[in-house]
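<purpose> Linking amino acid order to shape
<body> The protein record starts here
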Amino acid sequence: MKPKIFSTKGRIRISHFPPDAKKKIFNLVDSDGNPIEGQQLGLLLYKGGTVCDDSFDNTAAEAICKYINSSFTAFLWTSEKTFDIQSNFDITLDDVQCGSAEWESCRYSEENDCGHSEDVFLSCKPGIYNQTDVLLIKLFRSYKHGVISIS
């Protein structure tokens, strides 16, 4: 598939998404901007832009994975990764706070005060469980372990 090139706010953005993928609110992409499948860690996109990690937590990860596919659960999320393509995108989502694993319970801002070093990378996996262990990799490469409960 040949990438589509278009201009956004004086920047050139390259899109690798098939036309139907652009209709999705959330997408996970690899380092080349291609949609990923399966349990891979990908750059999280919201309406074609990246998602900032401000206020992002396990509940937000769970809500987004479930929104992407109702049979998905969050496996891993981090903001400690970088892809060369990140600067091709605007940051379109910030301050995501969710009250449950449902996207409808989430509050967020489409304005941001972030840099691409705060972009969220997410991995979802099939299966809904009452409790799911989620490995949370955060600042200074410290590892934290969280448990997500779905009610």
Remarks:
- The helical segments are 58-68.
- The chain has a mean pLDDT of 78.
- DSSP finds one helix and eleven strands in the chain.
